[in-house]
Queue: 3 jobs
Job 1
Amino acid sequence: LLSVLCLGDCQLHTSCGIQKCTTDFVSFTSHLNAALEDFDLEFCKALRAYSVCTYRNSKVCRGNLVYHSAVLGISDLMTQRNCTKDGPTSSTNPEMTHDPCNYSGHIEAREHQQGEKTPPPTYLFCGLFGDPHLRTFKDHFQTCKVEGAWPLIDNKYLSVQVTNVPVVPGSSATATNKITIIFKSYQDCTDQKVYQAMTDDLPAAFVDGTTSGGDGNTRNLHIVEKVSGKYIEMRARYIGTTVYIHQLGHYLTLAIRMPQELVMAYEESQDLQLCVNGCPSSERIDQSGHLPLPVMGKLLPRGAVSHPRSGYTLETATTKCHEKMLVKDIYFYSCVFDLLTTGDANFTAAAHSALQDVEALHPTKEHWHIFPRSGDDGVGRDSKFFVSLGLMCLIHVAYL
């Protein structure tokens, strides 16, 4: 076959473009297996595409012997394989479908190789904000202490680590003051890039001073500063991943969307990922969703702790959070919880911002809002997206 198509001499006749036609044909057929049922179908599609390409070059290749040999070879092969002249053709831009630095291109390449339509990729969302509250890739919602450095994500492509510090002296409440992200080197798309943010230091560049990875023209990985010192976005097209980081008050929030198949590309030793498996039970404040509640609607008990009271009652905290969030979902109740715990109104903005990030990045609109389960008012829906009645008020005696 290669001798018929004159691959060996094509490089000597680059002016007429026959080499490109031949290279594309080889790309279309190199993965085909003659033992498979669809071999003839796919081979004929590739031959027709090859024929179309040679026709487009017929004028500039008029006196080129390699070109005429290819035309004769195509005709012979179509006769041998009983290919019709009319019919579907392989993509005329195989280099586009095989772009290794475009995640959506991976899917198209897979479709081309398999000869059939594959389902669109599934994207997952994870977010961390506030005291801190964690929404995992499985849409589970937890409230944890996790003081110190913890991995949110650690897989073949990406590592994200957060550091949480105590918010109020004498309380187990913590919040995030440092985020470190490592985009691992990937083929020719990007070298390893490290990003680090800390309270009052939210740079619009990686630690090496660059703002992108890979070819500067394609921007396979790049940072966009949305609000100076307060909000940045990172987009990695080669792994189909988007990251948002905000500073609200003295603490940081993070939201990320990533393809499911990449999220799950990790080793057994990398199983301690909060976004994948949630917080360890020993670090969870909500204890599987159940929180002991104080007397409703009253000030926090005097003398219960060594730190000052937040200054909010359940009623005033609810009113404050309702100014930003009209829907009483888990983000609303997280806001109430954080106000009662810390007295810091910036946590209201953090909860509201976290919900906006969900609406921007979460792929399924029906799952944007997570509602606490209630046995009384019937607002409970699909239990896998809910937390128990204890989180409905989000107040834990241990925080007082």
Job 2
Amino acid sequence: MDLDIQCEEMSPSRWAELLTTMKSCKTIRLDDCNLSSSNCEDLSSIINTNPSLTELKLNNNELGDKGVEYLCKGLLTPSCSLQKLWLQNCNLTSDSCETLRSVLSAQPSLTELHVGDNRLGTNGVKVLCQGIMNPSCKLQKLQLEYCELTADIVEALNAALQSKPTLKELSLSNNTLGDTAIKQLCQGLMEASCNLELLHLENCGITSDSCMEISAVLRNKSSLMDLSVGDNKIGDSGLALLCQGMMHPSCKIQKLWLWDCDLTSASCKDLSTLISTKETLTEISLIDNNLRDSGMEMLCQALKDPRSKLQELWLRECGLTTACCKAVSSALSTNKHLKVLHIGENKLRDAGVELLCEGLMHPNCNIQSLWLGNCDLTARCCATLATAMVTKQCLTELDLSCNPLEDEGIRKILEALRKPSCNLQQLILYDILWSAEVDDELRAMEESKPELKIVS
């Protein structure tokens, strides 16, 4: 049994009602419920008396250090079986880290700890690392985003990484680390005892200066499968270094996020080689990079290579226009593996989307999710989109947000939704103006097709 409640103010009577339910829950999620430290006293008792509880999510509540102190009393009891604890944005400080260290040291069942968006600071996380190094700790995932960490944290993190081969996922995004700290971190990642599979370093002050060291990790650590260095100014030269590491036969990278990395079309030659030859690579995000049509055409050539196994490609806000859509269409008609294409916030226009739909409707194309928000589309392309919706039964998600489709365009989409062969499950229509009559038609459509969700 699971309890999943979000964004609900808790009256005393409602809270008392939920406490009864919690006694038999396996998962409890109470994000954004205006909880405080007093609620944590009750939750501590639930943790203590409900041995089936394995996951507790309390994100975005004002628990404070006192609330965590109450929770940890329950977590330290022998009957506790909690595996996953989420305390993101709960107004915690470094004072909570000593209490959490005790739990990490004494509770081997705890495998995930999410404490991002809290002002733990470098000194607080150093204390957490002491708990992680305890032989009893079996932590596998540690999330420390927005924790006000500095370069001084790396020595403690490296010690934890080297002593804890069970640790598989580490997120340090949105902390002021810088190249020197990243180079030092990479030394720890290269240790034989480190088995990290996921490393997120978004917005950490990385430049091309530390990409050689990251490349060496990619080349030597076959365990690393998920790397995110988005929102760092690595540039084309940094990307070239990363690609050298990823092209090594030992690298088994699957997911690569490079959003807003100051990349240009010059990077697309290296990226194309990576996409066409790295068969483990299934997802890449290039959002908010100035790739332009010339870069996109190179990527499309890579997608047509039989060795490419890419399943998800994110290209929002990449300076693309109608001019690249013929190449995209050709790639869609050739590549059988691509399932997700996010290409919104590019000036594709009606003519471009009509070209895309030609590839989309090809028998080889297996696209399930297509995002075309803010692409300067009008009602003129909606008949073609409607045909694709009806023809392509694998298509289950479509985003047309922020396009001036008006009543005429929305009605064409509705016609497609009424066809039995249309399998769309989610239609996203943010920031589009339509009449009250069309609004009624959209609501009626949702009622007639319970499997369809229209988001507007």
Job 3
Amino acid sequence: DEILRSLAGPPSPPGQDPHGWRVPVDCVRANELCAAEPSCSSRYRTLRQCLAGRDRNTMLANKECQAALEVLQESPLYDCRCKRGMKKELQCLQIYWSIHLGLTEGEEFYEASPYEPVTSRLSDIFRLASIFSGMDPATNSKSNHCLDAAKACNLNDNCKRLRSGYISTCSKEISATEHCSRRKCHKALRQFFDRVPSEYTYRLLFCSCKDQACAERRRQTIVPSCSYEDKEKPNCLDLRNMCRTDHLCRSRLADFHTNCQASFQSLTSCPGDNYQACLGSYAGLIGFDMTPNYVDASTTSITISPWCSCKGSGNMEEECEKFLRDFTENPCLRNAIQAFGNGTDVNLSPKNPSPPVTLPPKTEKSPALPDDINDSNTMYDTSVITTCTSVQEHGPKLNKSKEQSLCYSETQLTTDIMPDQKTFVDQKAGGSRHWAGRILPIVPILLLKLAL
């Protein structure tokens, strides 16, 4: 799939290349290709009629619907994806789900993202840091990074205009009982995060904080009294089901699960070790009923959650708690936010997830993978282990950090004492060679005396 995506481009006309139509394209283009083929277009119309009743079991019992599904799985529509922010994004997503809702139950816990995979990294954003005036906040521990982010936004006309627009909309009181228009607030927020470059929006959302005033400013970034909080917290599964009735919200939630779902087989706990993809998916959820935000102004831990609870879940409580933990106890999301706030990124990641490496001979003294990922100290220790593992496997190619400096401390302890030897085993081997070097010149002299 990755190879196909990398080769994706303007598809060849079906008449020239019989296989070109299988190259992944955006769903609007795939719909055009399907419409140009009578067999595909007729089957697509049939499938849409089958799905009109929204009863998948009835649809699958119909042979004509089954035949339409089988044909469309071999069409360009099956592999199509959408680009975030594309001109016809909503139309593209509607086409995507018109196919994929027929291929799945539509009630899976996780759904595949309809968006093209993100290949850029956080380092791409860090390279654009020169657009901000003044000293880099990372060099000043007393700086309010969130305030600096707001100042940087005000220096850009587009960022300033759209930020002022959503703040004004989300703060405008409608009546004595309704202090704002939640629908208009969400729309203004979506425009801001879709139209303003991420080097500005990320700094507002994920700025690092060392004091409560800074953390509260970060929490207030999206005007939570209107965009986030409500009179009562709905059940999280009800909120998810409501989100899935809207093609755009459903797509953003599926994208979040695809890019932020915790993966303990990777260096960073993120799929593909891609912090950028996770943070982009998080930002994509803002402006919907599923909008996530910081639950408090804590400076010691980062806890993210949508405005919902699992109260009243009944026999679905376990599934509800699992869904909520993907926000509140997600090491990938937390690591990604911390990485951006610290100005760090993973520049090198294994092509294939490798099993955990055992570190001799002090493995038993090293902290284990955290059972309770709410413990920030445990998380820090774990990040040291995973970073050190990567350094051992790939050499010092990662960008320098506190964690990497800790990786070198144990090996330098040996090499500083004995520069010529790396380990005590080498020391013995070196000693044997040393004595051998002194004994060998004596042997010819002894043999000469014996001959005389």
